[in-house]
Amino acid sequence: MELAEAYANKSVDEIKEALAGATLRVYSCPQPETPNHPIIRNGLLAEFVLGSPAVDGDNALVEPVPAKNVGTPLFSRATTPDGATIADFSTGPGDSDIKLAEVSCSKDAPVKITKLQIRPGVPNGKQPVSPSDKMRERIGTHQISHEQTYAWNDDFAARKTK
């Protein structure tokens, strides 16, 4: 669980209070670096509106909802009714903050939260680094393009036909 800056020093009870009536969105896209960063690629799978109170122990007080898309849950973001981010939760099998009844989501199939743990200080799992990310890091670039590797592109402006 990664808390937004505004909730970083809050107690578990204060976080539970903030979650009352919050919107919890489940995503299949990569998780942003912190909850304060926007979600760039929108792999929205499901959207819940938590009850008040939101949790009872590790049980989320929320009804199942139909999935909006097909995918495998990677993380969830909780936001206040006015849209401010509360926290990002690890979502999926294993030692996750949020466990769903199914491992993946299918469009219009019910999505049910079976466990919601409030665990500040327990970091979310990190995605494995892909081979292309390793290569970008090794060569010191953010974009892989043939234009960076061919010497003939160095004088392109001079060769450009008018």
From TrEMBL:
The protein here is known as Uncharacterized protein
Q: Upper lineage ranks?
A: Bacteria, Pseudomonadati, Pseudomonadota, Alphaproteobacteria, Hyphomicrobiales
